[in-house]
Amino acid sequence: MSRKKLSKKTRKRRLIVKIIFVLILFVICFSMFLLFSKKDRAFLENLNYDQSGEITYYDIYGIHMNFNGKFELDDNFNNPKLVLANGNKEEVIDWNLEHQDNNYSFETSEYINGGINLEKLENGKYYLLIKAETKKDDATVYEYFPFTNQTEYDDLTYYTLTKNNSNKKIDISWGHYLTYELLSFNIENAKLPDDVYDITIDPGHDGNDSGKIVCSDVSVPDDMGECMSGTSYKESDLNFTVSKALKEELEKLGYKVKLTRDSKTDTVPTYGEMGSATTANTTKSKFNFALHHNSTNIPGGMSSTYGLEVYVAGDSNFDLAKLLVQNVCKYGNTSTSTKDEFKVKDGIYQRFSDDGITPYYYMIREVGGIATHAYVDGNNEEYDANPYYNSNHTAEGYLLELGYIDNVRELQNILDNPKGYARGIASALDDYLN
Ligand SMILES: [Zn+2]
Description:
The protein is α+β, with helices and mostly antiparallel strands and 434 residues long. It is built from seven helices and 23 strands. Helices cover 24% and strands 30% of the residues. The strands form four sheets. Strands 1, 2, 5, 6, 7, 10 and 22 form a seven-stranded mixed sheet that branches. α2 (235-252) packs across α7 (418-433) and α4 (319-331) packs antiparallel against α7 (418-433). The structure holds zinc ion.
């Protein structure tokens, strides 16, 4: 096929049209930019910098961000609110506010997994401000006050969970207007970096540490983990089977998922690079699920205890935990644990160290950074230091004891139905997020 040759004149004309089109586009974009930055500046110019609030704590735990702070407000101001605002749009953020005379203190949630849901913020640039009412010439007007950073922490970058193959990037940064400090949220669509994930799954134990070994024939395994006649099952292998199935279920829902080990025989450090307790934070995952199978200390398959236990960090609401319990019971064809110790609600458990606030399980405590009082297992020299123990941007962690493998009936259900357990966890998360 021969292409009709265009005359020189036509080609030239087309080129000129193209250039003009690009120029017009450029002018439009540039004037939009000027308009927005002018609006932004006009908004910032009109803030009240005579007094500012103080942020004394902030963190991102999972998909939620929390702030604690304090401020003073003169008598002529009333009804303060916490807002994300930019002059065009404004969102009021819930807080628990207390005051004594003119001194106010607040927290955005009593729960570490409550507060600002970062998944729900709309694109744009916003400032975190106090908005208060006052009177001018008998009319009600509003004034906005900025915050200063009274913490040791700096800027944070959050990537939203993958939804329909796309993500948003939220830059939460301490900047300045003239000499005044203020906190901004800049939210825009962005490609998820290769090393950032939505969810991390830690199949408990590893190729070096099998956890409990049980025998299908109720016999007691020997020192080598072999059974007299029945088949032997290692907890670490069962954990891996469900974890891999969970990864597949979550990927079907569109999430990007990281396993802390890729096979039954892989070994994983605890606090080292891409370790069981560090991978979730290295990959900026929003959730970390540590999957285990339980056992009692009764030899053989004699345990009468059975059922699901979902371990949750302190100061948490149970919104996701309850869904995990419901859905794993439904799809795993199982029931909640018969164990009473550490139980706070049907199927939901909280176990603390002696201090009463620090989660006992390091997979909850260390993964959550400052939100869960991580402190590194410093008393054990064998462990590397957890690089995230002092982090204020961490994953929301759950440890699931899916069932008792030294209960013969429960072991059979776990062997028959690992995909059901996985589907239960995935659908719980799906329900929670949608
Ligand atoms: Zn275990």
